[in-house]
Amino acid sequence: MPKRIFFTGVPGSRWSGIAQTLETMSGMNISDRTAEREYDHHSYTGHKGAYFGPEMEFEPILDSNYIDSAWSNPHGCKLVKSHEWAYDLNQIKTKFPNDWIMMVYRPDMISYAWWHEAGGFQIQYPNYSGYKNSVVMLSKIIKQNSSILEFGMLNNCKWEYFTSEWIYQNFDQNIAVTKTFPDILITLIT
């Protein structure tokens, strides 16, 4: 496994649930988790660990020392989560050639609706105030999804469902995926 996996998906793409499943794998570093960096909604643990974004605890700055400062332990693979990485995928690929990129795609309106269902601007962590209002949020979701799909196309990515078999094929680990959503696709660039 690499030192980092830059992980991106739009708000409401259910990417945080995928992240939490990945972080159960052997070799993952979850020392970025604190009580202050957790948000629960409904029966889900919606967010765990550090998120990078505008006006969030960590800005989306592509500096390895800055990024790594979110983890208290330097060892293991860090899942570096940001919606904003969608805009920086080429730069990440160039600047961090030994790290991986994982992208989650879910259609715009379904993501937008789920983000509101999960708490919207009432989400306590991370801070979404940088998205200003619902109109800006939808605009950002559309732009981020477009960037994710364009980067995927330019890099000949294979989009697949997030399943236990996918984890085994890509990470050689047996991890249970409790539910696969037909409207969510993922890809991994190693």
Would you kindly provide a written description of the structure presented here, covering whatever features stand out?
The chain is α/β, with parallel strands linked by helices. It has one domain. About 30% of the residues lie in helices and about 15% in strands. The chain is built from six helices and six strands. Strands 4-1-5-6 form a four-stranded mixed β-sheet, sandwiched between helices. The protein has a two-stranded antiparallel sheet with strand order 2-3.
Task: List the topology elements.
Elements: E1 4-8, H1 15-22, E2 38-41, E3 44-48, H2 64-68, E4 78-81, H3 89-95, E5 100-105, H4 108-117, H5 134-154, H6 164-171, E6 185-189
Parallel strand pairs: 1-4, 1-5
Antiparallel strand pairs: 2-3, 5-6
Helix pairs in contact: 4-5
Order of helical and strand elements? EHEEHEHEHHHE
Beta strands, count: 6
Name the average pLDDT. 95
Shape: globular
* Individual helix count: 6
Question: Which regions have little confidence, pLDDT < 50, spanning 5+ residues?
Answer: none
Helix content: 25-40%
How many distinct folded domains?
1
- Sheet with most strands: 4 strands, mixed
The spatial strand order of the largest sheet comes to 4-1-5-6
Structural class: alpha/beta
Strand content: 15-25%
**Span between N and C termini?**
9 Å
